Amino acid sequence: MLEIAAGHPKAGTGLDGLRNLTVNVKECDTTDRYALEALGVGLYQHVIVLSDDRFKPQHADTRTLMTLLQLRDMQTVAGERYSIVSEMHDENNRSLAEVTEADDIVISDTVIGLLLAQLAENRHLADVFSYLFDSRGSEIYPRPASSYVTKDVPVSFSTVIESARRRGETAIGYRLASGVNQPPHYGVVLNPSKSQPLTLGEGDSVIVLSER
User: Fold this and answer.
1) Who contacts 93 (Cβ-Cβ below 8 Å, separation ≥6)?
2) Is the dihedral of CA 144, 179, 188, 165 positive or negative?
3) Which of 11, 38, 96, 207 has the most Cβ atoms closer than 10 angstroms to its Cβ?
4) Contact 82, 7 (CB under 8 A)
5) pTM score
6) Backbone angles phi, psi at 88, to 5 degrees
């Protein structure tokens, strides 16, 4: 199984953190406790456990569950805290994965099913999805809130959306600096109310879809 650790350990958020990203790739068996400990996952803020496509779905999910259990036990022993997002194949295994207290569980087959259902309802969405999933299309970026609104001044998210639109971007949410260490969302709010008052200050970010 490949372990990919993206980002400098405990890298800062915002553009500076993105500019300093590094990628380390190590091939190992992540169901092995010693192999996991050797990766030094405690140095990172976020861990993503992807399903191993070399195995059949049920076996791959079993390996993912073993990896999640090991990671949570490592956290308990070392007193560390990092968010864990996991990919599963079978929706029926979600309840088992929840025992591991994963912060989020993505069912890959369900995501594909939802995508196909939307395409069946509206074929014109194919161009939208193609653009979003194309490596040359828009990507998700956290940008300093001060680039969109005046700091510490109450606004609506509609104002943020308009400000982003004028920059050729699409605002989809924000992240509050005060919540970066608070599970399960770590300060991230997606698709917020457009009319509810919102105050963004120092260290807060606006999450946008942008081509650059």
Assistant:
1) 61, 65
2) negative
3) 207
4) no
5) 0.53
6) -125, 155
